[in-house]
Design a protein that fits this description.
- This protein is α/β, with parallel strands linked by helices.
- Helices cover 42% and strands 15% of the residues.
- It has 6 helices and 5 strands; from the N terminus they run E-H-H-E-H-E-H-E-H-E-H.
- The radius of gyration is 14 Å and the shape is globular.
- The protein starts with a strand and ends in an 18-residue tail after the last helix.
- GO terms for molecular function: methylglyoxal synthase activity.
- This is Methylglyoxal synthase.
Length: 137
């Protein structure tokens, strides 16, 4: 079953995400990929795969991906963020990570976690259903 996966990386982490994506290209190729602007362009070039590009993170791309989470159309987020270099749009980053927790969305913030997530037998298991919280109560 095809999933929608978001791939995002801060400037200092883009090489790490690109290297990771190359290692897992075969898996990524089976899914719909979305990314923030610059990262999406690099991924598309390096992987030779289609990547839907949103705006750059500081220009609203993080919020566009957050909207996918809130709408229930994103299945996982791979966000290699740089904890040692705060970005000017840091509140947007925190909001994006908060939405992952609110909506029980799988999120990997570094290569080790991304490896574990994408190689999990549950990742492509069509029987696995993510539990969504019911905030209507």
């Amino acid at each position: 079953m095809q999933k929608t996966l978001a791939l995002v990386a801060h400037d200092h982490k883009k090489p790490d995400l690109i290297g990771w994506a190359k290692q897992h290209r075969a898996i990524l190729a089976r899914h719909k990929l979305v990314a923030t602007g610059t990262t999406g362009g690099l991924l598309s070039d390096e992987l030779a795969l289609p990547v839907h590009r949103f705006k750059s993170g500081p220009l609203g791309g993080d919020q566009q991906i957050g909207a996918l989470i809130a709408e229930g159309t994103l299945d996982a987020l791979f966000f290699f963020w740089d904890p040692l270099n705060p970005a000017p749009h840091d509140p947007d980053v925190k909001a994006l990570l908060r939405l992952c927790s609110v909506w029980n969305l799988p999120v990997a913030c570094n290569e080790a976690t991304a490896d574990l997530m994408i190689t999990s037998p549950l990742f492509e298991d069509s029987q696995h259903v993510r539990k969504l919280p019911d905030y209507g109560k």
